[in-house]
Design goal:
Elements lengths: L19 E5 L6 H15 L3 E6 L10 H10 L6 E3 L4 E3 L4 E6 H4 L11 E4 L7 H10 L6 E6 L7 H8 L5 E5 L10 H13 L1 H7 L14 H9 L3 E2 L9 E6 L6 E9 L2 E10 L4 H11 L3 E6 L15 H6 L4 E4 L5 H12 L2 E4 L4 H9 L2 E4 L4 E6 L5 H15 L2 H7 L5 H7 L1
Parallel strand pairs: 1-7, 1-8, 2-5, 2-6, 6-7, 9-15, 10-13, 12-15, 13-14
Antiparallel strand pairs: 3-4, 4-5, 10-11, 11-12, 16-17
Length: 421
């Protein structure tokens, strides 16, 4: 194909039919640049519905909309494509649409007619999102494209497409060496980084995975859990109550860990995360899991937060119907992290059902002070924060002495004494 000459050799596979087309690697490999050009060329050749997505997209500015618009000009396709505020349309009926996965995961059925789905920054896509997205893109001949810079080997995207790629997949690793147009300014930055840190260079420009993210808060604890085999299959024991531990949001995520106390162990058997949902959604999700529940532990702000329900607080809504609810103390972040570290050695995690929660714990990191080049004492607020905050709710609840705990509890059943002992 004559268009292939405009691409790095390693990206020429984009023009050949495959169910999965995956390009991963370090900075400067022209992955996003090449994919955007390929999609625009294919969309000009025949009518296509192309979904451009990523895990989180709060506005069109977070998407690849501008990248595509720029490439339309570079390819001299301005007379063919009409760039609109939220879509891009071709003269032949081709349409590019843009959406975040996490915020719209419940509406993915509307994408059944998609011909090509491009997942950008795919390293952050959760297991839940992939599990829902992949069977949704099911039109005959449909394709799923993914581009990403690897972070950890334990991330679901890396495991899914690099460690154990699916059938009918073309997975290539591409780096700056494969980019004939690698800019000189980036080359200088690359050489400077390599002189400062070979490990950072390998990760940023060669696309090597890190063992842990830089500034990881639970680095030692998660390494120890992996080595001890405490991230594995953890079955539900129907003779013991399941307690839940929440971090509450609406525009941000609401996250819930499900745990049982068996002997001296805390078994985290499940995890739930979603956004833009009211309390009734989460209560229904809890009911559908079929567990025998004990106490639902909420963060201190559950007394004030309201998600509709005639002005009732989250605490009041969950407590309705006789559910046992407790509010954990409002400890400082430092004290909360100390509580989490103190209980980690007694925690067992279900590797499958808690995969997204574990991914967040592995990526939970301290904020960087750019002026000093050091880490601050407070965690970075990003996608990993809310699952980690829910885990901190868990840790504070089980570490808090009974005397203080009862000051905050709205109702503690008899089963809670055994759990909190």
């Amino acid at each position: 194909m004559e268009n292939e000459a405009a691409f790095p050799k390693k990206l020429q596979f984009l023009f050949k039919p495959k169910r999965y087309k995956v390009a991963y690697g370090g900075r400067g490999g022209a992955k996003s640049w090449g994919v955007s050009r390929a999609l625009l060329i294919l969309g000009a050749e025949r009518k296509l519905l192309i979904l451009c997505t990523r895990e989180t997209q709060r506005s069109i500015a977070d998407s690849v909309h501008k990248l595509l618009a720029d490439q339309i000009l570079n390819l001299n396709l301005g007379s063919f494509y009409r760039v609109q505020q939220a879509t891009i349309r071709g003269a032949n009926g081709t349409e590019f649409i843009f959406s975040g996965l996490h915020q719209n995961i419940g509406n993915l059925k509307s994408y059944e007619a998609v011909d090509i789905c491009w997942v950008e920054e795919a390293q952050t896509v959760s297991k839940k999102s992939w599990d829902i997205l992949i069977p949704t893109i099911r039109k005959n001949g449909s394709e799923i494209w993914a581009t990403f810079n690897p972070e950890l080997e334990t991330d679901d995207t890396y495991r899914r497409f690099v460690t154990s790629p699916p059938p009918d997949a073309e997975v290539i690793r591409i780096g700056w060496q494969d980019n004939p147009w690698f800019p000189e300014v980036l080359r200088k930055e690359m050489e400077h980084l390599r002189a400062q840190s070979e490990d950072d260079y390998q990760h940023v420009y060669e696309g090597a995975c890190r063992q842990v993210v830089e500034g990881a808060i639970y680095r030692a604890e998660l390494i120890a859990a992996d080595k001890a085999g405490r991230i594995t299959r953890v079955p539900y024991d129907p003779t013991q109550p399941v307690h839940t531990f929440w971090d509450i949001g609406f525009g941000d995520n609401t996250c819930i860990w499900f745990a049982q106390s068996i002997g001296f162990e805390f078994r985290l058997i499940d995890f739930l995360s979603d956004c833009l949902k009211d309390v009734t959604f989460y209560l229904k999700a809890l009911q559908e899991r079929g567990y025998l529940y004990g106490t639902h532990y909420l963060p201190h702000d559950a007394r004030a937060k309201q998600f509709s329900a005639a002005g009732r607080t989250v605490q009041q809504q969950i407590a309705a119907g006789g559910r046992a609810v407790a509010i954990v103390p409002n400890l400082s972040i430092v004290d909360g992290l100390a509580s989490a570290r103190a209980v980690f050695s007694r925690c067992w995690f279900d590797a499958e059902k808690c995969a997204d929660g574990l991914q967040a714990l592995r990526h939970y990191r301290y904020e960087v002070d750019d002026s000093l080049g050091t880490f601050k004492q407070k965690p970075l607020h990003d996608w990993a924060s809310h699952p980690a905050d829910a885990f901190r709710t868990f840790a504070v609840a089980i570490q808090e002495p009974k005397r203080k705990r009862e000051e905050y509890a709205s109702r503690i059943p008899e089963t809670a004494d055994a759990w909190m002992a």
